[in-house]
From TrEMBL:
This is Sigma-54 factor interaction domain-containing protein. The keyword ATP-binding applies. GO terms for biological process: regulation of DNA-templated transcription. InterPro entries: GAF, GAF-like_dom_sf, P-loop_NTPase, Sigma_54_int, Sigma_54_int_dom_ATP-bd_1. PANTHER family: ALGINATE BIOSYNTHESIS TRANSCRIPTIONAL REGULATORY PROTEIN ALGB, TRANSCRIPTIONAL REGULATORY PROTEIN. One of its GO terms (molecular function) is ATP binding.
Amino acid sequence: MNQSKPPISDQQLLSALLEIGEFLGSGSEFEDSLRAILRVLSDRLRMNRGTMSLLQEGGDRQEVAIDIAYGLSQDEIDRGRYKVGEGITGRVVASGKPVIVPRISSEPLFLDRTGSRSTSEKTHTSFICVPIPLKAKVVGTLSADCPYTDDVTLQANVRFLSIVAAMVAQNVASRQRAQEQWATLLDENQRLQSQLKDRHRPTNILGNSRPMQEVGDLVGMVAPSDATVLLRGESGTGKELVADALHYHSLRAPKPFVKVHIAALPESLVESELFGHEKGA
């Protein structure tokens, strides 16, 4: 017969809290720090399957999804998604209040979307979920399984997990700000690239005559290919504009467009400048 493990002491709780604080202040990537924190909860305090779920807002849709977890596979993490107000996790986000499920198997609101628990496990496992507060808003939840136990111990676990949630809240906010800034930079980059392409559109080359229209059609046809293009014409007729248009509408557009004034190169260097040369040759 298996003997139940002794209860977690205050000293163990304090030691775990100090270790968690060290992880958060270590300067490591937030994801790595949080995984280490969830590992401490599991190894030191018997709080297993620890997860951090974050509120994801897009238009009219609000969803809570597992962001980081310890003890879950990637498939199980991907399945952990809830509408606000749905299941235990969704209700905690909606209400901003922690929830204790003393016995998972007896709680119909516990949806077990991850599918990570066996039927036998559910009969002797409790689940606790607390909000991650940021000012007057709930940005996510912190949750974990723990062995079925008395209400006093479960309440103590909730208080401890709530402290940890408050500690990680600022890190979550910093991470979200960084992600928003990165998204803004990407949008700005795409906008500038679009403007640059518009600037080099064949239609922006002055001239509406039939020959110029044919030039524009040829640029549109040749630019996506790997064909070598030779542009000929008198000085000032727009060869460089056409070359720009070819480059910025080609597959090489993200790479630099290098312009070389061949007339300024000695004849002996033209080949090596354009096509390179072997070292020592």
